[in-house]
Amino acid sequence: MDRIKIVGGKPLRGSIPISGAKNAALPLLIASLLTEDRLTLKNVPNLADVNLLVRILRNHGVDLAVDGKRPGPATHLGDTIHLTARDIVDTTAPYEMVSRMRASFWVLGPLVARMREARVSLPGGCAIGTRPVDLHLMGLKALGAEIDIDAGYVIARAPKGLHGARIVFPKVSVGATHNVLLAAALAKGETVIENAAREPEIGDVALCLSKMGAKVEGIGTSVLRIQGRDRLEGAVHTVLPDRIETGTFAMAVAATGGDVTLEGARLGDLKTALEILASTGTSIQEAETGVRVYRNGGGIAPVSVETEPFPGFPTDLQAQLMALLTRASGTSVIRETIFENRFMHVQELARLGADIQLHGDTATITGVKTLKGAPVMATDLRASVSLVIAGLAGEGETVINRVYHLDRGFEQLERKLSACGADIERIASG
Ligand SMILES: CC(=O)N[C@H]1[C@@H](OP(=O)(O)OP(=O)(O)OC[C@H]2O[C@@H](n3ccc(=O)[nH]c3=O)[C@H](O)[C@@H]2O)O[C@H](CO)[C@@H](O)[C@@H]1O
Ligand SMILES: C=C(OP(=O)(O)O)C(=O)O
């Protein structure tokens, strides 16, 4: 298994191109199941999760062509992928594939909408909590699907097709909103989703579905109104920039000091997180080509934060913020309200000398003067990158094991960081 070796203590300077968002690319790729025509997606990041989903879609019968180089240099802007699902040859999404990635479960809605039946394994994904799918099933049932669970598979049937409905989610769920939104685009009549997730990735999918012919109103709000169509058309769509990658590099610059422009980043998609980062003493400016982040001297001020659905502080940046706060001058508090078990990084950060106390959903972080490099283990995607940030800001050598977690969601991480002066390299296994 590959490892990543970091020698810390170097400020980051230069520019980093921000890739297309993993969490938008995945549902956009799935949207290809909704049409017999060609869906062209630009700026698709070259990530393990994307490649796994591509395998799942191929298994359903989606024909796929990729333009551009893979893997490209760190400056490339992502691949263009053409997907055509002329015939769906298999409506089963098998355990071996779906158990490895959360978003693969989102094929359920589109498959039952188009094929009137689907059999999809219960999902996996980062081990950050129990992660039930009751809201997905509630939404699809409201659209007319009959749902059974058998031998670890969800079996959805809608012999007469799906129909529009009013769905009021009792809790905000990104995945359930995606699943129902995708299905509603091929359902008969109007669907209204209330208490929908407002994440920019949902908006990106809604925009693409509008290009494909389904009218979606309320993009960016918690009420989505979708006029379904019997048939959707092909479209060309560019995946929006990854706000979590943006926030991650911003936290890395804050932790090491330096001055980096995050090329292509959109400030508006990350307002809360960047405001919190600014309150730690880091400067953030909208630049012509993206977002500039800099901290030249001065300490890191402590902060108190709760994770929340968008537009609140994202849970996907919680671990990275914690890595930064380990060196704050004072005590910070982070409350994780989205996932009940998203603190796997705490024990690994402690190996580097961090002082973090955990009580239920709350972490209290007392800043230390320095972190010292150590061998650590990546446990999930964002936890892993928090160890990269801590390693870059610490003294000496940090070696991160199990980096396949990082490859799920960060495109060319070492190349992007070393181009800004970081001492970071991948040690290939065997
Ligand atoms: C591929 C992708 O985009 N993953 C993101 C997505 O995950 P995911 O879509 O899994 O996250 P959700 O928004 O659905 O989960 C939010 C909360 O709702 C709960 N819940 C969810 C569904 C359900 O049917 N029942 C239920 O109780 C979950 O356990 C969790 O406590 O949104 C999360 C929250 O922003 C992010 O951390 C993940 O990076
Ligand atoms: C938790 C994440 O991914 P997944 O939902 O696929 O586990 C993530 O992207 O941070």
From TrEMBL:
Q: Which domain of life is it from?
A: Bacteria
Protein's UniProt name: UDP-N-acetylglucosamine 1-carboxyvinyltransferase
Q: Kindly identify the residues recorded as the active site.
A: 126
Chain positions recorded as UDP-N-acetyl-alpha-D-glucosamine binding sites: 102, 131-135, 171-174, 316, 338
Instruction: Extract the InterPro entries matched here.
Output: Enolpyruvate_Tfrase_dom, Enolpyruvate_Tfrase_sf, MurA_subfamily, RNA3'P_cycl/enolpyr_Trfase_a/b, UDP_GlcNAc_COvinyl_MurA
Pathway in which this enzyme or protein is active:
Cell wall biogenesis; peptidoglycan biosynthesis
Q: Write out the entry's keywords from A to Z.
A: Cell cycle, Cell division, Cell shape, Cell wall biogenesis/degradation, Cytoplasm, Peptidoglycan synthesis, Pyruvate, Transferase
Domain Enolpyruvate transferase: start-end pairs: 8-417
Which ranges of the sequence are coiled-coil? none
Catalytic activity, as annotated: phosphoenolpyruvate + UDP-N-acetyl-alpha-D-glucosamine = UDP-N-acetyl-3-O-(1-carboxyvinyl)-alpha-D-glucosamine + phosphate
Q: What is its main location?
A: cytoplasm
Q: Which residues carry this modification: 2-(S-cysteinyl)pyruvic acid O-phosphothioketal?
A: 126
| Class of the enzyme per the UniProt entry, highest EC level | transferase
Gene3D superfamilies, per database record? Enolpyruvate transferase domain
Annotated organism of origin: Hyphomicrobium facile
The EC number of this protein is 2.5.1.7
